[in-house]
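Quick one: tRNA-2-methylthio-N(6)-dimethylallyladenosine synthase from Paralabilibaculum antarcticum, structure tokens please.
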Amino acid sequence: MKYHLISLGCQMNASDGERVRTVIEQMGYTYTEDETEANLIGILACSVRQNAIDKVYSKISKWNKWKNRSNLITFVSGCVLPSDHEKFLKLFDIIFQMKDLPNLPEMIHQYGITTANGVQKGFDAQNDNISEFWNVKPDHTSDFEAFVPIQNGCDKFCSFCAVPYTRGREVSRPSVEIVNEVRSLVERGYKSITLLGQNVNSYGLDKKGDEIDFPELLRQIGNLGDDLKTEFWLYFTSPHPRDMTDEVIEVIAQYKCLAKQIHLPLQSGDDKLLIAMNRKHGLEKYRQSVSTIKRLIPEATLFTDIIVGFTGETNEQFENTRKAMEEFKYNMAYIAMYSPRPGALSHRWFDDVSLDIKKSRHHILTEDLKIHSKNYNSTMLDKVFKVLVKGTAKHDGYLAGLTEGRINVRFLSTDESLIGQFVDVKITSAANFSVEGEMITIKEGVV
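--- reply ---
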């Protein structure tokens, strides 16, 4: 028996998919890249943008046609809004929330002997039994990069966001489990580990003093790195500017294994628009955090998320976002055109910024980003950087990787045994979003 799995959207879905693979493969299924060969096909949906949901409907329409000629079971999970949940009941054989993953074998076993609509769990925005999901050991798709979930859900209720309605309220995973999982990964040779959550720097706040907070979690992992004396980079995503404290930045500056790269979502550079977005912070709070990062970790790279064309965004407000990008000089920004999400508060508001204007603003901001990224990359010239080799580059004869600051690097080599290893690369040229260099030495895994 074979299965095929598609994960859409963010790193959280990719991480969840690794646990889905474990459960399915324990049932005796083997993975196939070719969905036409599969007896079981699943998709982890993303409700952040409409085009991702449109892809789900497109896929299931095709898969259901295949049922006329093959024995096929389909399922959907991931970030699913209640409105889509109701529609999916009639399209997929099985639908469940990720917290119910341990019950998937039973659902597959029951399929065909229950209701006409297949097997489904009722939609429930609570995360009461999420610990059962975390207890599933992930089937990592890489042997040198890994995700470690530390919480699920979100309490912020940004007006544009569907996450509180798809993943529920914030629940923190026990810190002992997190640290133990990180330790196991490092001992097995993993070089890049990313802590995942919808709002990682509010970690532990839902436990009312019964759990450590996010700075202490980072400190414990930092101490672990010092004790193990094994070289690895630990990242986290995503933090919320409202909860970003100086202590978090101080801890990152203190420990070698805590990567000097910070992803801090801005969304907009205009205070009035931030209020409309219900971001619960202003530009000055954001500016203070960036100032602390620059002061304590001057070598750190800064990434962000930005939405253009949010309901009511004026030309002046967009220009304020351009000014913020000029001020903060991001190394990378993930720029999205706003699309209303059912269930989110802003879905009730008239989407009054035309698609043409959204596209124009997206293009302008991307061009601004190219300038700042290229300027930073040019400062890397003639310097040597440690690079984690991730694979072959698009250009024949080259390997590609990332610096600690997650700057894309390519260098001349065909030695694929270097993939998953650290190497030293001297930078010889710089482009908008990447650099090129020459390999100097291979780094050993021990400091």
